From TrEMBL:
GO terms for biological process: response to antibiotic. Residues 37-272 form the ABC transmembrane type-2 domain. This is ABC-2 type transport system permease protein. The keyword Transmembrane helix applies. Its main location: membrane. Keywords: Antibiotic resistance, Membrane, Transmembrane, Transmembrane helix. InterPro entries: ABC2_TM (IPR013525), ABC2_TM_bact-type (IPR047817), ABC_2_transport (IPR000412), Nod_factor_ABC_transporter (IPR051784). It is a multi-pass membrane protein. The chain crosses the membrane at residues 39-58, 70-93, 114-140, 152-177, 184-204, 249-269. One of its GO terms (molecular function) is ABC-type transporter activity. It comes from Streptomyces zhaozhouensis.
Length: 296
């Protein structure tokens, strides 16, 4: 009876965490939609992608596939990657500086619910941005859309698994970054490096073999390859390093990164919350006010 009660209590607590996370996530999403500055940032990324698609000419080597379609698929993967691995850590570091983690430490189940809420927010923004980009590219620049049920299914699972790979990892990174002012600098350089080396903006086969091998260890390369499989005709796979889409490997690598992210995210967020104190939060806010980062 004690075991049954304990199991029911654990299940009830998990259910409460999810409900609290979804409620908080809905509130955060409404705040985002009412914030023109933040919304303009996401729309700017879509506009940049469209300009790239319009500007790029020619065809992928040995295929009749427009190079612009390959660039669109790769940049779509990069936007998903960026939202999870750049935007989310910045948001987490900012809220930690403002004392959010300190308040969560005193709330039962606060950290899991907080992670669920921010994950929901990031996933919603990422999927909305991806949908807007593909629709706008199809209308403005004759961009590619999935062909048939198989293409849509591939787009769905690659997007879902890609976000599962980067959102928990972004949360783990956000838990250890020092402050919002340094967060962008520390994340953007490696992220831009991966954009160049992962075949997101041009065929990865044009890069040296050692660069291809390094890029293959990170999720962006496989996210881009999976989205190309969903959006490009099957003949375009000859431009891939293995001459195929390697969808089982796409699933395997992204699943591995998803597991690693989940194993790191909650412990690191709990550790960051334990290290918080009222005096530390007050000191940070006072320092930010003196530097003009926030109103005094």
């Amino acid at each position: 009876m004690r075991g049954t009660t304990s199991g029911a209590g654990a299940g009830g607590a998990t259910g409460r965490h999810w409900r609290a996370g979804f409620l908080r996530g809905g509130i955060e999403l409404r705040h985002l939609l009412r914030n023109p500055k933040e919304m303009s940032g996401h729309l700017t990324n879509v506009v940049v992608a469209l300009l790239l698609v319009v500007y790029v000419g020619g065809e992928v080597a040995d295929t009749a596939t427009p190079m612009s379609h390959l660039v669109l698929a790769g940049f779509a993967a990069y936007l998903l990657f960026q939202i999870g691995l750049v935007n989310l850590p910045q948001m987490l570091v900012t809220e930690r500086e403002e004392g959010t983690l300190l308040r969560l430490r005193a709330t039962p189940g606060g950290i899991p619910a907080y992670l669920i809420a921010n994950g929901l927010l990031v996933v919603t923004v990422a999927v909305g941005t991806l949908g807007l980009l593909l629709l706008a590219a199809a209308v403005v620049a004759d961009g590619p859309l999935p062909r048939g049920a198989e293409g849509w299914l591939t787009l769905l699972w690659v997007t879902a698994l890609g976000l599962l790979a980067v959102v928990p990892l972004g949360a783990a990174i956000g838990a250890v970054l020092p402050n919002p002012r340094e967060a962008l600098a520390l994340i953007m350089l490696p992220t831009m490096g991966l954009l160049v080396t992962s075949g997101a903006v041009f065929p990865i086969t044009s890069l040296p073999a050692v660069v291809q091998q390094v890029a293959s260890a990170f999720p962006l390369k496989w996210m881009a390859q999976g989205l190309r499989a969903a959006l490009l005709p099957d003949a375009a796979r000859v431009a891939e390093p293995a001459g195929s889409w390697e969808l089982p490997m796409v699933a395997l690598v992204l699943t591995g990164w998803a597991i690693l992210g989940f194993l790191l995210a909650i412990p690191l967020l709990r550790r960051a919350a334990r290290r918080e104190s009222g005096s530390r939060v007050s000191a940070r806010l006072h320092k930010a006010a003196r530097s003009g980062a926030v109103p005094a």
